[in-house]
Amino acid sequence: MSNQTPIDQIAERVERLLVRYEELQRTNALLAAQVETLTTERDALKSRLGAARARVDALLERLPDTLATQKDAT
Known about the structure:
This protein is mainly α. The protein has one domain (6-73). The chain is 89% helix and 0% strand. The longest helix has 57 residues, at 6-62.
């Protein structure tokens, strides 16, 4: 059996909860930083994808219409 008084037991538990709370705060801060980094990376990739699509569309516009006509004929 424990020799601690109920107040000591509660104080010990509160201390453990405070330590756990601080750990969770640090973990949350790290996860928030990761989300920010990944969001920035995603936005950059979406921008690059949009630029690549625009270049492909521009190249498709430059194709001669005769290729489309030949393809339709086959």
